[in-house]
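To whoever picks this up:

The parser on our side crashed when reading a file containing two proteins. I've narrowed it down to the boundary between the first structure block and the second sequence. Both blocks are reproduced below exactly, byte for byte. First block:
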Amino acid sequence: MAKIKPFKGIRPPKELVEQVASRPYDVLNSEEAREEAKGNEKSLYHIIKPEIDFPAGTDEHDPKVYDKAVENFHLFRQKGWLKQDPEEMYYVYAQTMKGRTQYGLVVCANVGDYLSGVIKKHELTRKDKEEDRMMHVRVNNANIEPVFFAYPAHQELDEIVAGVIQKTPEYDFVAPDGFGHHFWPIDDKAVINRITGIFAGIPYLYIADGHHRTAAAALVGAEKAKQNPNHTGNEEYNYFLAVCFPDNQLQIIDYNRVVEDLNGLSDEEFLKALDENFEVEEKGFEIYKPEKLHQFSLYLSGKWYSLTAKPGTYNDNDPIGVLDVTISSNLILDKILGIKDLRTDKRVDFVGGIRGLEELKRRVDSGNMKAAFALYPVSMQQLIDIADTGNIMPPKTTWFEPKLRSGLVIHSLS
């Protein structure tokens, strides 16, 4: 059962929130962060991408870069750009994309729940990326950025949130990417206790986005527990910052593939090879999007094709076998193109569906890539089935949008 707690959030005053808030650290590179933070000393990038305060090309893992994060975090608090709430609270954080709004609860999730599997994962993490975020949590003694969780939708929680959002939001703005962000503190003690109580009856939480941040936060918490001879389990470091959304409000968007070459095959030979496991249909010059599970789009030499997997090429009773990323990886990338490992092979690249199928067409038309494959998005239910059966999704399967804005609230570990 999920153990959560309220916390004294560290956050910007209302009038500064748009200057402080930023995109998450892992969706842009150092140069892009430098550009976005230009002329804005209050941007959170100075804490989460502190290499921007050094000459271009500075290694982001250099110890002086982590030291700069700490220095900037202290500076932000000193100058009043970030202030700590006097009382422990929960918060409602809502995001609006293309007219659709999803409502999450900002909570502190429990380190023990991650280590024991109450918080379920569906992705493998990389040690180097974990270690980078662990350093960041350690040096700042805080979770500067939240992780993104889903929970099985619960009617009473929906009703509590519906009540909270009747009030004027504390923050309410549209970010430069066009997504709306809305934020309400919950300071009513009875409501806070009820939320904690409801979560205590929810069997599992699911990591939607932020596997590395979750692992890092939990591992640092466990580390601090070991180092404290008087550890009780109630210390602040036993918890980390998460935004939890009901599963029925979340939408996963497609995560597509582009490849550099056809492994020595001509277009005709490649299409003929596809014929063995797919119904191949030419769709012409207009962008063609897959319409259902087990259907793919192929863009090759200026034309779009639909590829429908033939019966017997997938297993709908197997949480991994049902996935279109499994079908495309096994039957196209591996079998025909000789791309065995999606994590390491440089001949394949991945394009988040938020960029649209136009981006696939652009990458191929530019001559940088030879062909592109668009996939039908994974459903939230497929993700939950995989996490529940202890399976791991193939790499680059899910893309959640909108991303959580960083800098709306921070959790201190002491």
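<<boundary where parser fails>>
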Amino acid sequence: MKKISMPNPIAELDGDEMTRIIWAMIKDELIKPFVELNTEYYDLSIQNRENTKDQVTVEAAEAIKRLKVGVKCATITPNLQRQQEYHLTKLWRSPNATIRAALDGTVFRAPILISKVKPVVSCWKRPITIARHAYGDIYRAVEYRVECPGKAELLFTDENGRELSRQTIFDFKGPGVLQAMHNRDDSILSFARCCFSYALDVKQDVWFSTKDTISKDYDQTFKLLFQKVFDEEYREAFEQAGLRYRYALIDDVAAKVIRSEGGIIWACKNYDGDVMSDLIAAASGSLPMMTSVLVSPDGCFEYEAAHGTVVDHYRRHLKGEKVSTNPLATIAAWAGALKKRGELDGNAELVSFAEKLGRAGIEVFEEGYLSEDLAALCDPTEFREMPDNERLMSLIREKLTEMMQG
């Protein structure tokens, strides 16, 4: 059949280990036979980040800003063990952190639900999307290990050297530990706008939670700025769309989410979102079934799978073993990026293909062909086969071909 035209490119950010192999299979088996794929390619493998002193990550972020759409494979964020394994000169930053900072974006994560795997929370009928503020909190904290008695103070000096605030944190009588966090109003305002804009796009309510009763300045600032943005910029659009915004304490929202049917955007601060996205993923079925999209306030989108590089499968693969790796979140990343490119360009054929690409893998799984992570979670009476990667990709291609021909 005639391939679908794709005049404008997307930024393609390749990655590491088993997901790099799955990435190439998706391109070769599921996309290139149907689409004249047009990408600007950036190799974010740990080896190339080492060779370029991580400049490739900066270039990739700039490409997303320029092209408005990017798709990213899972990458290694090295610890000491990984540094030794890959002979790195330093512990390079997380590529995700670099890209999030460059785009000033908000991360939206939602699980892929299939009927063969029942959520742990039985009342969940629709995915719960976690909107994570990707700036500040403990991820940019300053820490100090206290070894002796003394007084810890919080001091703020303005740019002219005037001391505006000095507060005693604690009078230590012995060893302890200190941590200082920060955030910025402009980053919080961008976070709020991303959440409300994305909610209007996907037609879902927004629930936002902090602990402002305890944190009367830090968390209270989040609460007040969210309400300001909603009242001044989004209330009318929400009312016209029949959507709601609500704020509540995080423990209250956690309890209500457990009793909900899902289908909401739960906006969280950085650390809260990091934890809750994994909780939602695991409770929905499997961590490899979590999608992720980074959205910037000026309309840039980066799609990726929320899971890691599947290093255990990669090491088995290197030994020559057949492995069964879940590709659905990575397929969803490609489908999301291609669909957004099509929407921005008015390319209806590309949008239609992307929607079919996203459904093809899910339908194969719904027929009982399940990857290793889901096979153990499925009712044995509904399980048909645990195909290896090559066979699973072949089954998805057959399904996608049927959809395209039908």
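After patching the parser it read the second block fine. The mean pLDDT is 94. The chain is about 45% helix and 20% strand.
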